[in-house]
Design a protein that fits this description.
The complex is a heterodimer of chains A (about 100) and B (about 160). Chain A has about 100 residues and is mostly helical. In chain A, about 85% of the residues lie in helices and about 0% in strands. Chain A has a domain of about 60 residues. In chain A, α1 runs antiparallel to α2 and α2 packs antiparallel against α3. Chain B is mainly α and about 160 residues long. Classes of the chains: A mainly alpha (about 100), B mainly alpha (about 160).
C-alpha cells in the first residue's frame, strides 16, 4: 500500500505547478489550463483522503469540483473568444499594459 | 507492485504537468494537459475511486481538453502564442514563490502523523456514490446542475457577436 503522504505530496506538486503557470504565463488560455491543473491537484487530495478515511464523501465532492471546473472552462473560454474579438490577442500583458 | 505503478504514474503526471506550463505553443500545452489528466485517472483507480476515474476521463480528457483545443484552433494559433519579451525576473519570482509554497505544503504534510488505509469497502463504488449524491448530497448535487446551466447561458451570451436591441 502506498502511504497517503506520497499522494498528498504529488497533489501539492501538481497544485504548485498550476500556480506557477498562472504566475509566469501570459496567454489567457494557458493560464486557464494552469487553473485546471490546480483543480486536478485538489481533486487528488480529496480522493486520497476519501480512500484513507474510508468514506465516499470525498469522491462525491471531487465529482462536484469537476462540475465546477467544467463550468469555469466554458465561461473562461467564452471570455477568451470575446477578448480576441475585441482586442485581437489573448496576451494579458497586451490587454492591460502596466 | 502498487508502488511501482504509483511511481510511474506520478512521474508521468509531474512531467506532463511541467510540460503544460513550459511549452510555448498552446496546442502542445493542451496535449500535455490531456496526458496529465490520464495519469490522474490511473491514480484514482489505484485509490479505488473508479467512478471519479471514469468521470475524469470523460469530463476532463473528453470534454475540457477538446474544448481548449477547439478554442485554440478557432481563434488561431498565432494569436494565442506569447511574444518573447524581457520578463526574466518575473519568471524567476514566480518559480521562487511556487517553490516556497511547495516547501510549506510538504512540510505540513510531513508534520502530520501518517495514517493507515481504511479497509476497502466491498460495496460497489459507483452505486455507493450514486446513493450518496441523491441522499445526503442532494442539495449540492442540484446546485451543481444550476451552476452548469448558468455557465451554459453565460458562455452563450459572452460568445455571441453582438447583443441585439
Amino acid at each position: 500500500m502506498v502511504p497517503a503522504s506520497y499522494y498528498l505530496i504529488l497533489a501539492a506538486i501538481l497544485f504548485v505547478l498550476g500556480g506557477i503557470g498562472v504566475l509566469i504565463r501570459r496567454s489567457a488560455l494557458v493560464m486557464l489550463m494552469s487553473v485546471e491543473l490546480m483543480l486536478a491537484g485538489a481533486n487528488l487530495t480529496l480522493v486520497t483522503y476519501s480512500r484513507f478515511l474510508g468514506k465516499v464523501d470525498g469522491q462525491a465532492f471531487a465529482f462536484l469540483v469537476m462540475a465546477v471546473a467544467a463550468a469555469e472552462v466554458a465561461v473562461g473560454l467564452a471570455i477568451a473568444v470575446s477578448l480576441v474579438r475585441h482586442k485581437d490577442t489573448t496576451d494579458v500583458d497586451e490587454i492591460d499594459p502596466c | 507492485m502498487e508502488l511501482v505503478v504509483f511511481l510511474i504514474l506520478a512521474v508521468l503526471a509531474v512531467v506532463s504537468g511541467a510540460g503544460v506550463i513550459a511549452q510555448r505553443s498552446a496546442t502542445r500545452s493542451a496535449l500535455f494537459l490531456l496526458a496529465c489528466f490520464c495519469c490522474l485517472a490511473g491514480l484514482f483507480i489505484l485509490l479505488n475511486a473508479q467512478f471519479v476515474a471514469l468521470a475524469q476521463v470523460i469530463v476532463y480528457a473528453g470534454a475540457i481538453v477538446v474544448l481548449f483545443l477547439f478554442v485554440v484552433l478557432l481563434i488561431g494559433i498565432e494569436r494565442v502564442a506569447e511574444k518573447p519579451g524581457p520578463r526574466k525576473s518575473e519568471r524567476v519570482a514566480g518559480i521562487l514563490l511556487g517553490a516556497m509554497l511547495l516547501v510549506g505544503i510538504v512540510w505540513a504534510i510531513l508534520a502530520t502523523k501518517g495514517s493507515t488505509a481504511a479497509p476497502l469497502s466491498r460495496a460497489d463504488n459507483v452505486r455507493e456514490i450514486g446513493q450518496l449524491l441523491l441522499s445526503g448530497w442532494a442539495i449540492p448535487f442540484e446546485m451543481a446542475a444550476v451552476v452548469l446551466l448558468v455557465a451554459i447561458v453565460g458562455a452563450a451570451v459572452l460568445a455571441k457577436k453582438r447583443l441585439e436591441g
